[in-house]
Amino acid sequence: AVKILLSHFSSIGFWGLVNNAGISTFGETGWLPMETYEKFADVNLLGSIRTTLAFLPLLRKYKGRIVFMSSIIAYFTLGNGIYSMTKAAIEKFCDALRLEMKKFGVQVCIIQPGNYAPSTKIQPPVSAEEIWSELSEEEKAVYNKEYVQERANFFNSILSEGSTNGNEVVDAMVDALTSPAPKARYMVAKLKEKALVFVCALFPTVVMDSVLSYALSK
Question: Which residues are listed as membrane-spanning (predicted)?
Answer without folding.
Answer: 66-83, 195-216
